[in-house]
Specification:
Layout lengths: L1 E3 L2 E3 L6 E2 L1 H26 L13 H10 L5 E3 L5 H6 L5 H8 L39 E2 L10 H16 L1 H6 L11 E6 L6 H13 L3 E6 L3 E2 L2 E2 L19 H7 L1
Helix pairs in contact: 1-4, 5-7
């Protein structure tokens, strides 16, 4: 890696990060990790009833946030806190507001205490009940607790962008919600949850429909304390395309 006056140039890349940007990324990653550690301590001490946190996911969260733009949408899961903090959709006050079940919207803008902690969302309506112009904000759909349940929504958000892009009439009537269909839907999921049918159906449909989806699969190694090799063929979603038993042998067995 070479250091230049404009910042640090990464190897095999044209991307350049200034020293200030690197410091800011480090600050966000550190705050997010400390929030996870303090939050887990609060749960174990009985001050909060439940806790799911995003420690260990800081770097991919920062990377996604750098690509995430105003008008884009997120449909992910509860390990995304660094992504949300780095993109400006979550504050530490909101993080702990959810943890303690605060019913004040100012303390927990995501749901006002109606969701589990680390279930994120952006507010789509203003105080008068009108839709906010979503093309000028970074947006997150409300998280769901059932594993992979957010994947069909990810597909729907991406498909909306494609439909708007292809239809000039929709571009006119949805001008506050889409900028000519140029939005990207960002999704995230743990590797254990990729065993769910919602994941496979969404991935297949996204490929068939050719919609703008950016999907991150976190390599956790476990799903609800169960090792990945007991849930996913080849113990890896990346290697699952290769059957552990040859197709010809399966035909013989059957």
């Amino acid at each position: 890696m070479t250091i230049e006056s404009s910042g640090i140039r990464l190897p095999r890349s044209d991307a350049t990060l200034s020293l200030d940007a690197i410091r800011e990324d480090y600050r966000v990653a550190y705050l997010s990790r400390r929030a996870s550690l303090v939050g887990r301590r609060e749960v174990l001490a009985g001050n909060a009833t439940f806790g799911v946190f995003g420690d260990g996911k800081e770097l991919p969260g920062l990377a996604m946030a750098r690509a995430f733009r105003a008008g884009d949408w997120r449909s992910g899961y509860y390990r995304d806190q660094t992504f949300l903090i780095a993109s400006g959709m979550l504050t530490l006050r909101g993080f702990f507001g959810q943890l303690y079940g605060a019913t004040d919207i100012a303390a927990d803008p995501a749901s006002g205490g109606r969701q589990m902690n680390n279930h994120f969302a952006s507010r789509l309506l203003d105080d008068a009940g009108r839709y906010r112009p979503q093309i000028s904000t970074k947006n997150s759909s409300a998280d769901v607790s059932c594993m992979a349940g957010w994947m069909p929504r990810l597909l729907g958000l991406a498909y909306t962008s494609k439909l708007v892009r292809q239809n000039p009439l929709l571009q006119q009537v949805m001008s506050e919600f889409s900028e000519n269909g140029n939005e990207v839907a960002f999704g995230s999921i743990g590797d254990a949850s990729t065993s769910e049918g919602h994941f496979w159906e969404t991935l297949n449909a996204a490929a068939v429909l050719q919609v703008p989806v950016m999907l991150t699969v976190y390599d956790d190694g476990f799903g609800i304390s169960v090792p990945t090799e007991l849930q996913t063929v080849k113990a890896s979603i990346s290697d699952a395309r290769r059957l552990s038993t040859p197709v010809r042998q399966l035909a013989t067995i059957n």
